[in-house]
Amino acid sequence: MSPPPRFPLAHLPTPLVPAERLGRATGGSVWVKRDDLTGFALGGNKARKLEYAVGEALRLGADVLVTGGGPRSNHVRAAAAAAAAAGLGCQVVLYGEPPAAEGPNLAL
After folding, report:
1. Active-site residue identified among 55, 73, 76, 83
2. Strands 31-33 and 16-18, how do they pair?
3. In angstroms, rounded to a whole number, what is the distance separating the alpha carbons of residues 75 and 53?
4. What DSSP string runs through 19-67?
5. pLDDT greater than 90 at residue 41
6. Which residues, in sequence order, are CB contacts of 18 under 8 Å at separation 6+?
7. Has 73 been annotated as catalytic?
């Protein structure tokens, strides 16, 4: 079995860093996975799953990525950026009432 197709978006691997104050407060050793350092469209861990979603879309010969979420969705913003990086169009389905103001995620 071959691995699933992947379209590279993130700078991986991201580092593990000690959370020293939290470790002292809890009496243990606590480490944090710094997926905020993936470097892709402020997507954090969303870049990881989008690498596979976009890879599969390209494998299938798709020309548009379709995604959905709320009008302030970080996932929708990251998916639109991933589609653009791969040369795909992007259609977004938003739920709920239209927001009174556009907001940064929807504007992007």
Report:
1. 73
2. antiparallel
3. 12
4. -HHHHHHHTS--EEE-GGGS-STT-TTHHHHHHHHHHHHHHTT-SEEEE
5. no
6. 29, 30, 31, 32
7. yes
Q: Which residues are within 8 A (CB) of 45 and not within 5 positions of it... i.e. 6 or more apart?
A: 35, 38
Considering the entire predicted model, what is its pTM?
A: 0.82
What is the tens place of the pLDDT at every residue in 45-103?
Answer: 899 999 999 999 999 999 999 999 988 889 999 999 999 999 999 999 999 888 888 77
**Residue in 65, 70, 93 with CA at minimum distance from that of residue 80:** 65
CB atoms within 10 A of CB 54: 24
The answer to whether the CB of 20 falls within 8 A of the CB of 39 is: no
Amino acid type, 90? C
Residue 49, sorted as left (phi over 0), alpha (psi -120 to 50) or beta, turns out to be alpha
